[in-house]
């Protein structure tokens, strides 16, 4: 078995690589549209079926790792993700593209909650576990967008090479995760000893569609839902219509440049995750929300004039807000969740995340046909700012309740 530091690196790499798959097709969407002549709505349908399959996986196998262990679920998901990448290489139309996205979505859904829990289990301390588990989504998505844009623009076989590279990486990681110790492997028998004694019936019961968090942490989770929605709805816009916005509204026609522009938001998200660690805990949520609002308003202002530099600056600021706000969410859920329910808790978090990620993007795809791409992007930005305002309101309410609870506990302890 790997040592704890190496296990942490492998788990983090698996988390980032899993989300790399989410953005790898994005710089290719304009190419697919030209080749196969489908509309912006069809493009968002391709995006939506990925999320639908992902949600099915989260609802069925999302908490399976809490029963049978992180390793088998993570490894199987990575192998399936490699299969999905290979399906992209042979896709000859929208049907093949949708099939690849369905397989990819189910694999990512099976992996996300499991790998996040693996990172939390393997981390050297709570701080580093939180930083890495909240940074890997934006880092992985950034890598996917930039890698795909680079290979499409400069490498041979532009529609296949990126997927072959990713398929090979997933097969390597599927092997490596078997050497990451399970939580509770050493010392007294832990939850996985009990899991090994579980009957086949109980495992099948785990696969029944379900989601949720332990009753004692429901107030914490519900208070964080607006923050989850605000951050992931914005990332959904970048990954669904982002390439079209950059190419059509801002006039960028290089696939490499498109990948870089998309990558700015997600690279900044990783930076925001790390930068928020420098702030006092009570300020992290407000810093993330403020950066989201300022960044989104800047990107909205850039669209009418096609001001690419302003759009890049706005994307970077919004990305910093995404990273800081999402890290706050992961921190809060990691602190509140018991170790033997982490897989389920983070699977539920990602269910909420991907609903927010996909539903507004699908509506936006419909709106493009009626209102045009620029107007739709502006409307989407206004919608996301409204979500941030709701998140701020929920945060203020949560803070007031916490202060009241703290003040009620002080006299009791005197």
Give a brief outline of the structure.
With 414 residues, the protein is mostly helical. Helix content is 81%, strand content 0%.
Q: Give the distance, in angstroms, between the N- and C-terminal Cα atoms.
A: 49 Å
Q: What structural category arises from helix and sheet content?
A: mainly alpha
Note the quaternary state here. single chain
H/I helix tally: 17
What's the CATH first level?
Answer: Mainly Alpha
Corresponding CATH superfamily: MFS general substrate transporter like domains
Helical residues, percent: over 70%
How does this structure look, described?
This protein is mainly α. It has a single domain, classed as Growth Hormone, Chain: A, CATH 1.20.1250. Helix content is 81%, strand content 0%. The protein is built from 17 helices and no strands. It starts with a helix and ends with a helix. The relative contact order is 0.15.
Task: Summarize the helices and strands and which ones pair or pack.
Layout: H1 4-23, H2 29-36, H3 40-60, H4 65-68, H5 70-90, H6 94-122, H7 126-154, H8 161-176, H9 191-196, H10 200-206, H11 218-240, H12 242-249, H13 255-275, H14 281-302, H15 308-336, H16 342-371, H17 373-413
Helix pairs in contact: 1-6, 1-7, 1-8, 3-6, 3-16, 5-6, 5-8, 6-7, 6-16, 7-13, 7-15, 11-15, 11-16, 11-17, 12-13, 13-15, 14-15, 14-17, 16-17
What attributes does this structure have?
single chain, 414 residues, mainly alpha, Growth Hormone, Chain: A, 17 helices, 0% strand, globular
């Amino acid at each position: 078995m790997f040592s704890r530091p190496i296990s942490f690196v492998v788990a983090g790499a698996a988390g980032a690589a899993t989300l790399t798959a989410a953005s790898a097709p994005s710089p290719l969407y304009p190419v697919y549209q030209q080749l196969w002549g489908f509309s912006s709505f069809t493009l968002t349908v391709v995006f939506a079926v990925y999320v639908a399959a992902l949600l099915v996986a989260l609802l069925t196998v999302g908490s399976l790792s809490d029963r049978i262990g992180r390793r088998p679920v993570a490894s199987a998901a990575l192998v399936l993700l490699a299969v999905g990448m290979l399906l992209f290489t042979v896709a000859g139309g929208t049907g093949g593209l949708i099939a690849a996205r369905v397989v990819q979505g189910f694999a990512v859904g099976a992996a996300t909650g499991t790998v996040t829990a693996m990172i939390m289990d393997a981390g050297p301390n709570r701080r580093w576990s939180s930083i890495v588990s909240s940074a890997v989504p934006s880092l992985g998505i950034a890598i996917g967008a930039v890698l795909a844009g680079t290979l499409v623009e400069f490498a041979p076989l532009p529609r296949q090479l990126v997927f072959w590279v990713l398929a090979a990486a997933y097969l390597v990681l599927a092997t490596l995760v078997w050497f990451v110790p399970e939580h509770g492997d050493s010392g007294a028998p832990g939850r996985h000893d009990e899991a090994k004694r579980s009957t086949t019936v109980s495992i099948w019961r785990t696969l029944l569609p379900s989601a949720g968090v332990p009753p004692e942490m429901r107030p914490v989770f519900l208070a964080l839902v607006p923050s989850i929605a605000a951050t992931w709805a914005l990332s959904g816009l970048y990954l669904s219509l982002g390439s079209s916005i950059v190419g059509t509204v801002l006039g960028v026609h290089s696939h490499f440049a498109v990948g870089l522009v998309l990558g700015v938001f997600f690279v900044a998200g990783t930076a925001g995750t790390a930068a928020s660690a420098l702030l006092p805990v009570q300020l992290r949520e407000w810093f993330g929300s403020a950066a989201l609002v300022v960044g989104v308003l800047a990107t909205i202002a850039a669209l009418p004039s096609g001001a690419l530099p302003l759009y890049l600056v706005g994307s970077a600021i919004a990305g910093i807000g995404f990273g800081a706000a999402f890290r706050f969410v992961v921190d809060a859920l990691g602190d509140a969740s018991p170790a033997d329910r982490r897989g389920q808790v983070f699977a539920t978090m990602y269910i909420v995340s991907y609903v927010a990620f996909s539903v507004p993007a699908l509506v936006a795809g419909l709106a493009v046909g009626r209102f045009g791409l620029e107007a739709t992007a502006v409307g989407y930005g206004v919608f996301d700012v409204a979500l941030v305002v709701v998140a701020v309101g929920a945060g203020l309410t949560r803070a007031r309740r916490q202060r009241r609870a703290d003040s009620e506990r002080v006299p009791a302890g005197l």
